[in-house]
Amino acid sequence: MNTIIGTYECKVDAKGRLMIPSALKKQLAPQDGFVLKRSVFQPCLELYPMTEWNLMMQKINKLNRFVKKNNDFIRRFTAGVKVVEVDDLGRLLIPKDLVGFSKISKDIVLSSAVNIVEIWDKDLYEKAIAGDDDEFANLAEDVMGNSNDDSDGIS
Predict the structure, then answer these.
(1) 27, 127 Cβ separation under 8 angstroms
(2) For a Cys staple, 125 with which of 12, 57, 100, 109, CB 3.0–4.6 Å?
(3) What does pTM read for this prediction?
């Protein structure tokens, strides 16, 4: 698993194309394409390098499709999934249905999410990360506070 680092602001043209910032492009290369999909929890898109998508599909393929909730999950998780490529000019085309889902206008944010990239409308991204610092501190403690696996005690 490769860790992707950074948050980048850029623009989408009228056709839904975005220029991948060079610092991000270097982290994503070389790849055999990408998968673009709707986020499960947020009104944004998720860009999976093909290697990461294949790892996710290995996990999903272990689900028993004769269990209704598994089958329903697979259908919803893969709804709107598109294979996309970066063209020779370094642009990525966001399909119209995914532009609509994510409410992407002109200004967008590409934000690293460990091993994938989230693609946000800039205003929605700002709302998603805005909030009370104490609220985030409590969330961090709930999520990471009991995680002592191989810990060196350094935060």
Answers:
(1) no
(2) 109
(3) 0.87
- Cα–Cα distances (Å) from 64 to 40, 53, 93, in that order, read 20, 19, 34
For residue range 110-149, what is the model confidence (pLDDT) as tens digits? 999 999 999 999 999 999 999 777 788 888 888 888 766 6
Tokens 């810990």: give the residue.
151
Q: Is the peptide bond before 30 cis (omega within 30 degrees of 0)?
A: yes
Give the integer Cα–Cα distance in Å for 139 and 19.
34
Residues 6 or more apart whose CB falls under 8 angstroms from that of 79 comprise 38
Rounded Cα distance, 17 and 69, in Å? 35
